[in-house]
Amino acid sequence: MSDRQEKVLELLDTSGVHLHALLGRLTLDGHAPGDLMQELFIRLSGSNGFDRAKNPFSYAYKVAINLAFEWRRKRKIKYQPLEEDCLPPDTGPSTLERMIRTEELNQILDATSQLSELARNVVVMRYIEHQPYEEIAQQLGKRPHHLRSVNAKALARLQALLVSQKQNA
Amino acid sequence: MAESNEKDIRKRFDEISKYTISPEVTTCDLERVRRKLTEQPVAPQAMRPTIWRMIMNSRMTKPAAAAVIIIGALLGVTYFNVDGTSVAWAEVSEKVQQVRTYMFKGWTSTTGNMPGAEHMPKVETVTYMDSEYGMRNETYMNDKLSFIMYMNPHKEWMVSVMPETKSYMRVKVPDEQSGKMRQQSSDPREIVKQFTSFGYTELGRDTIDGIEVEGIAVDDPRILGGMFDSFKGRLWVDVQTDLPVKIEYEGSMLNGEMQMKITMGEFQWDLELDPDLFEPNIPDDYTLMAEMQIPGTKDKDVDKVIEALRLFSKIADGKYPSSLSMMTSMKEFGEAMKKATEAVDAITDEALRAEAKESLGEILGFEHKHNKEPGKKPSPEQMKAITSMMMTMQTPTTFYMQLVQQDKDPAYYGDKVSAEDTEAVLLRWKVSDTEYQVIFGDLTTKNVTAEQLAELEQAISP
After folding, report:
1. From the list A9, A37, A128, which residue is nearest B13 (CB)?
2. DSSP readout, B163-188?
3. How far is B392 from chain A (nearest CA, A)?
């Protein structure tokens, strides 16, 4: 077994659960995380960048985020306005509310996929993984105050994207 | 829909951060990744073997087939012992290892698309274990005692006795494995050790037969020696005694064509058992149906592996088993038999056909009568030869399992290499820090360095 393969398997053991959970949150899909995990680790197995990375987990983490948003972009799911003739059979208000809410969550993630890679990473680490700026800065190799600025702009951009989606619907 | 302001965006992200996937799905997905990173794919098979139909439809050979499969499973448990255990359940494993005697009942169900699967009997077992005297396993098929298996850690033979047919089989364990067999003469204890050593998911508490239990779930197909393509198991332990109350596992084999579910329960621990219970005491009028020696990794044992591969290639028109998993190689042997007998049948010249049948019979070791006489039961001679063949065909499988267990870096290329490929590596394993032993496609052998091996293996097409 090569050194790289050992390193990849060690990462799977130590951080596989975390990465899998991250992919789950970014896809909101039961099946996608499994496929994306395979894709992730196959990519890492063939990556010189992974070999050279000082922090293999950070490297894998960023690749995982990119894979998840790549998946979202390839998904051919468009926002559908909930007009009367598209409504599902009346199975109760809670089911309908859940569907609406899931759609809203997917919208914000789809909008996030349109941000720059840096902005996307900051948003994911800050709001989904709840990491402090200092930790994010360490992972991304940037300064915390720079990332605060990136984050603020990212939120403004997301607001604009959501408004635009609503108007185009 | 809510207004798209910053507060709403943060709220949506917060909900996303709470999204979770079930631990079982996570474990399964991670194991898929591990398998992808570390294992070779196995080519799927599709044909239906005549020999399998003969075995499954025969009252006489079914117990023998079951005995062979159970021997294979026990060997798998033995060869895949592990030394490390994880912290939380290590005490359970240690407690179980300290128990000197116990007994339990087992239930097995087999389903699938294999021919004869619809006739699979209901199988129940009663097993007695004693650290000093070994194991006695009574197997009942459709409520009838079919065979009794004995495994004594101090003796070199495992014995299976079939009272209904007044016959028995023996498997000899090589010296290099006999010490391990002495250490691991107990089946559920080894299963507990393996369950608690591979990755598991905690299931929390439940009640079984009025006993409060705590459980774990496992799904690593390496458990039980990789006998299953996919595997799921659960271990339930009494919270008061830390001893197993129920063990259950299920898995698929033959690329999903066969599914097996096994449950062990009604455990009784530390009971008085008569040592005579563990003696086969074979009556004089019983017939030895087959005996097999599990190959070690010495030269004479390698010869036995080559012999088995040669037999396979003679029947299979120069091909070898695509994989050295027990079920796959047995299934493919059956398929090859069917093809060979059909080819013989297709010969129109009577004299030539008779000669071809005799030739096939010489290879197989018995006069082959097949589906020209449907419904006819195999003769005792055929039955003995079939069982002997089944055990012979397990030789490469058990050899390979040993190589893996002994960390000898084995690799097998039967899906790509045939008897014509005189310079292609069919099977190889490490024999020293600097050398590998290689069996080539023409079944010659040679020792090579790691560099030479790398060159040879490059020539094998992907």
Report:
1. A128
2. TTTTEEEEEEPPHHHHHHHHHT--HH
3. 32
pLDDT number for residue B293: 67
Count CA atoms within 13 Å of residue A150 on its CB side. Answer: 22
In the predicted structure, residue B64 carries a pLDDT above the cut 60: no
Q: What is the dihedral of CA B180, B154, B399, B220, to 10 degrees?
A: -40
Judged by CB atoms closer than 8 Å, whether chains meet at B37 and A45 is answered as: yes
Length of chain A: 169
**Of residues B392 and A132, more confidently modeled:** A132
Give chain B's contact residues with A (Cβ, < 8 Å): 1-2, 4-6, 9-10, 12-17, 19-21, 25-26, 28-30, 32-34, 36-38
Measure the CA angle with vertex B383, ends B49 and B79; round to 5°: 75
Picking from A5, A24, A163, the nearest residue to B21 by CB comes out as A24
Picking from A1, A37, A162, the nearest residue to B4 by CB comes out as A162
Instruction: Report the pLDDT value the prediction gives residue A155, as an integer from 0 to 100.
Output: 93
How far, in whole angstroms, is CA B28 from its chain's centroid? 22
Beta carbons of B305 and B184 less than 8 angstroms apart: no
Prediction pTM value? 0.48
Min Cα distance A37 → chain B (Å) is: 7
DSSP state letter for B278: G
Q: Using DSSP, state whether B304 is helix, strand or coil.
A: helix
Q: What is the ipTM of this complex?
A: 0.86
d(CA B92, CA B239): 10
